[in-house]
Specification:
- Strands 1, 2, 3, 4, 5, 6, 7 and 8 form an 8-stranded mixed beta sheet that branches.
- The protein starts with a helix and ends with a helix.
- It is elongated.
- By secondary structure, it is of the alpha+beta class.
- Strand 4 and strand 5 form a beta hairpin.
- It has 2 domains: 67 residues; 192 residues, Nucleotide cyclase, GGDEF domain (Alpha-Beta Plaits, 2-Layer Sandwich), CATH 3.30.70.1230.
- It is built from 8 helices and 8 strands; from the N terminus they run ααβααββαββαβαββα.
Length: 274
């Protein structure tokens, strides 16, 4: 009887141990499940957060590169500033709409902005096509350059081709004029030479270029005519073998004296037959 009671007591202890083991395993499994679920949620949260941060960083980088040249934007991110650079061979182009001021005084502001955006958006496409750098727009003036931030030997040729495409687009837009849109005539001026490029200020960064080359390019534009591309002699010497040009004469330029000017009429025979 004592042996049987001992066996029963031993069985009872073993059953309690088994129950405790089952409870321990169950609780452990539950805790592991909770920890795994929490870890998974944390992983998803971290992953989604990193993805959002990455997307926002990409947006910020794209916006910065849309404002500044890629090389300049990378330098600004890395150093927090941009060093000024001198480029010895650059071609600068200015465009301007004839009669814009009179339209601006009488037009609805929204229509005016729509009209300017219509032109400038297409100009941007032309810049991308020819690998040119859009510098800025001021009112109805559009400024771009070739040969920076990456120097190139054909900088004058690329701008001349882009200028001819701009004239074609403006002429086609005028033919397709409608009552809902305002169309303009355009003047273009081009000059080649050295410039200094950089970013100034600490807010609202803007990439800009300076130098006598820029000033003369602006003078070429103001001395141009409706539907014409007016170039200085520096640019003429670079493109004269590949583009048909017409000598205008030695003409007076504000604050510069007299300068030789030429109209670009189109691509020359050599370029067309190439």
């Amino acid at each position: 009887v004592q042996r049987q009671e001992s066996e029963l007591q031993l069985q009872a202890v073993q059953q309690k141990r088994q129950q405790l083991t089952i409870w321990a395993v169950g609780i452990t499994a539950l805790l592991l499940t909770i920890i795994a679920f929490g870890s998974y949620k944390r992983y998803r949260f971290v992953k989604n957060t990193n993805q959002i941060i990455s997307e926002e960083r990409d947006k910020s980088d794209n916006l910065l590169q849309n404002i500044l040249p890629k090389q300049t934007a990378m330098e600004l991110k890395k150093l927090g500033r941009v060093r000024a650079q001198r480029f010895e061979q650059v071609t600068v182009m200015f465009t301007d709409f004839k009669g814009f001021t009179s339209h601006a005084e009488s037009m609805d502001p929204e229509k005016l902005v729509e009209s300017i955006d219509y032109y400038f958006s297409h100009f941007d496409t032309i810049m991308d096509k020819h690998g040119l750098e859009k510098i800025k727009t001021v009112g109805d003036a559009y400024m771009c350059a070739s040969g920076l931030p990456y120097p190139s030997e054909d900088h004058a040729h690329r701008i001349a081709e882009a200028a001819l495409e701009i004239l074609e687009f403006v002429a086609a837009a005028k033919k397709n004029d409608s009552q809902d849109n305002v169309r303009f005539d355009i003047r273009i001026g081009i000059n080649s030479g050295p410039v200094v490029a950089g970013v100034v200020g600490t807010k609202k960064f803007a990439y800009d270029i300076w130098g006598d080359t820029v000033n003369i390019a602006a003078r070429m534009e103001s001395a141009s005519e409706e539907g014409k591309i007016n170039i200085a002699e520096n640019t003429y010497e670079l493109i004269k073998n590949d583009f048909e040009c017409e000598y205008r004469g030695n003409m007076e330029v504000k604050n510069r004296g007299k300068l030789n000017m030429y109209f670009v009429l189109g691509k020359g025979a050599k370029t067309q037959s190439a």
